[in-house]
Amino acid sequence: MCYTASSEDVVIKGKICSVFDLLYKEYNKEFDEFIKSNMNEKGSVAEVIIYKLLKNDILLSESKFSVIEISREYRLRDLIIDYSLFSEEEKAFINNNSRLDFLLYSKIDKTPILAIEVDGVSFHNNKLQKRRDGYKDNILETIGLPLLRLSTDGSKERSKIIDCLTTILLNT
User: Can you give the residue range of the structural domain that contains 155?
Assistant: First the structure.
């Protein structure tokens, strides 16, 4: 990460790496190249970054992950069998085309194993979005599907995903 140290815009290189560093103005050239090479991908730039990390790196990096597939923009209503477990607000949220950024599932039996949400800092800082995130968190907890939230102001996304998947695979 790069940090501005003073009003003179002196850039100090941080010791923490984030896949979202590409979103900062210091990386304009790399950002433009990334956008050009991924014009056909749907979703926010942050979501495309995570999709590329998952698809082209993590799921290919170790043979134990070869049993995992990824789906983008997966509808919550396609995961729910028993609606009686949810409040009226949660039911409305589920049926209002609410989606997961990413659903990772077993290639073998199609069982969902992990949901991943990419949380843009400015977008997820308002009351309405926090309430929606709360619904989603509770719904996934109720159905027993682990959720990993990745904030665009966070770091170590690759290791967080790998650690989460490793833990899930060890417990199945």
Answer: 45-170
